[in-house]
Amino acid sequence: MQDITADYLRKHLGEVLDRSYYTGDEVKISRKGKALGVFVPIERYEKRREILKKAFLKFMEEERATGRGDDFTEDEVMDDVVNALHEVRKLNPAHD
Q1: d(CA 96, CA 35)
Q2: Does the pTM of the predicted model rise above 0.70?
């Protein structure tokens, strides 16, 4: 994974997008030594998202099979997960 600065990204956005898209490379963007984000080729992003969705749905099926997940919809659980993630990030912003 290549590591670039936010300033470099600002000046070379098109180049960075093309590099990520055409080579399949992930590019980490940092500012003042802190990682802020990652450019990921869209195919890889969509594949990861599908894997996470399948894992989440499997978890929900298992919870429902035991009777523990009967009272919650998938949307409610996902909202809870997102809210918990935001709370954890507030407590430990260095790991965003």
Answers
A1: 8
A2: no
Which of these CATH numbers, 3.40.1650.10, 3.40.1620.10, 3.40.50.720, 3.50.50.60, describes 1-40?
A: 3.40.1620.10
What is the Cβ-side half-sphere exposure of residue 71, based on CA atoms within 13 angstroms? 1
Lookup result for tokens 């992930």: 26
In the chain, domain spans: 1-40, 50-96
Assess contact for 41 and 47: CB atoms under 8 A.
no
Ramachandran region of residue 38, left (φ > 0), alpha (ψ -120 to 50) or beta?
beta
List phi, psi (to 5°) of 72. -120, 140
Q: What residues contact residue 35 under an 8 Å CB cut-off, 6+ apart? A: 28, 29, 96
- Give the model confidence (pLDDT) of 49-94 as tens digits: 888 888 888 877 777 777 766 677 778 877 877 777 777 667 655 5
